[in-house]
Amino acid sequence: xxxxxxxxxxRYRRRLGRRWDVGDRREGFDGACPVxxxxxxxxxxxxxxxSARPPRGLLMLLGPLQITTPVxxxxxxxxxxxxxxxxxxxxxxxxxxxxxxxxxxAHGAQVWVxxxxxxxxxxxxxxxxxxEERTVGFRPTIVEDFGPALDVAAKIVGVSTDFALLARxxxxxxxxxxxxxxxxxSQAYYLDITHPLAxxxxxxxxxxx
Length: 209
Prior knowledge:
Elements: E1 2-3, E2 13-16, E3 19-23, H1 33-42, E4 49-50, H2 59-62, E5 71-73, E6 78-80, E7 86-89, H3 94-107, E8 110-115, E9 118-121, H4 129-136, E10 141-142, E11 153-159, H5 163-176, E12 182-187, E13 190-194, H6 200-207
Parallel strand pairs: 4-5, 9-10
Antiparallel strand pairs: 1-3, 2-3, 5-6, 6-7, 8-9, 8-11, 11-13, 12-13
Helix pairs in contact: 3-5
């Protein structure tokens, strides 16, 4: 997630006009952040949130931090207002989304689909569900088939406790979807598949516009 300098353990800091961009390792923030955010605004510094999480998963931050600027979720896949109204979005094409889900399944990974405001999965006993629930602040919806959700998918995640399997999956899926999707492991157990413009490299460029 990308926020102000009150985030602990910064990985990088980049000046973007009048905006500081600071990464963190914990995907969280401490009690000092609301105060820090107020100080930044008082100094004329734009303060916003950019994250790999779905916009809905950022609601827990928007109130305490008094965010009034657009919110960038899925690393640039979806741009919303603080009320989560869509401003713009880069979605996977339906064909690419279906191909991605098929490839993940064929490799033996579990498939999660983030579509609209929903987090969809097919098996209630998938690994890491409780971890993701804590991260995004809401529960998944269990479905038998992803169906039309793949027509408007912002992010598809391959999930596995077999890290070597997921590494092979990353290599194979990235090759097969080259030019049509960003395919990268955000964690050893998560393989994120998004629109080519929705990735950590491009999100900072888009946030300057």
